[in-house]
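Hello, quick one for you while I still have it in my head. Could you read through the record and tell me how the tokens relate to the sequence? No rush at all, and the record is pasted right below.
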Amino acid sequence: MRLPLLHPEELTPTQRGLYDAFDAMVKADEYAGFEVRNADGAFVGPWGVMLHFPELGQALGQFVELAQRLPGLSERARQVVVLTIGARFNVAYELYAHATLGSRAGLRPDQVATLCEGGRPSGLTEEEALAADVAIALTARGPLPGPLYDTVVTTLGQEALDTIVFVTIHYLALGVVLNAYDVPAGSPGHQK
């Protein structure tokens, strides 16, 4: 990583507040199975970067929390979106963490591997395939094609489309941050 990892004893009061918020967040089960902190207690991944920018980290954290709670999309479809975005921009940590989360959501290992390579795996549900199509289209040039928009709204509903859009924004933002500071994947099989 291009920025130094910040250890708990080095933090300013503002950084410490964000560290404590991250600490509370990563205790959730969804963060098990991949590295979020190193052995010295320093956060890695997006948390390690955002501690350098605590005001922005707080604001992004609020957006992320809201985006993660949006209804209308299955967890499998969310993970398809995240892995699609991660692969399109080769975001090492995003792919590392969400390969675990995608498997946990029920994607088969071959589906996770194909998504991580930027492909379209076989056996996706209609919801998952449409979610991937929207994520791909939103990262291409121009507006979301009308026929795709209409198909998603008709098939999955407006709420699902809106969730796909904001989950895409969430992981594009994190992906840019992770790639700008060259954040590597965490240690395999590491627990929080």
User: Anything to note?
Assistant: Residues 8-68 form one domain. The chain has a mean pLDDT of 94.
